[in-house]
């Protein structure tokens, strides 16, 4: 299985930090955020990694090089302007999938202690999402998960039978993607979320719950929180 790390965002919510440093290179307890992902991928035996970039992308390439320091091989998908999550993946597809094989997709601005070996055998019809408990900044969650592993869009009908045996969770930013998810898509710049929603509507989306460490490093405060929690975990 190959992997892609999404690293082309502008990082506007983290300015002024990201005015001179791309978000994936912002240090978390002294280590650039993206290095946590590279280490986890190498540990799982996932060695072919695609990284897309746009804003300050040359700094990402200078910092990471060919990836051999982490035991991986990095291919860079360079974007003239950010293509959003969906457009970025479509541009990188030629490097990601052979004969329709699924690939691992990771948002570059999250920290997670997911064991990626658990995902190596996943073969979704469209996509398989790793979900987490809802954080304070996303209390309403994103998707519903039912016991058979199916992921559904949130229920809107109160009292409906659809509410039985389902619980709302937040998308972690980690997923296994079947290239078939993009069948018929012609846009070059678009987010992934609508494709996930459409797959859930057709009952073609699956997922699993991750109960370990996870944090979306979307603001300076969350960066500080992540550093505190990691130091606390290391001290145990």
TrEMBL record:
UniProt entry keywords in alphabetical sequence:
Nucleotidyltransferase, Transferase
Q: Which residues form the Nucleotidyl transferase domain?
A: 2-229
Which superkingdom does the taxonomy of this entry point to?
Bacteria
Name this protein carries in UniProt: Nucleotidyltransferase family protein
Give the taxonomic lineage as stored in the record: Bacteria, Pseudomonadati, Pseudomonadota, Gammaproteobacteria, Oceanospirillales
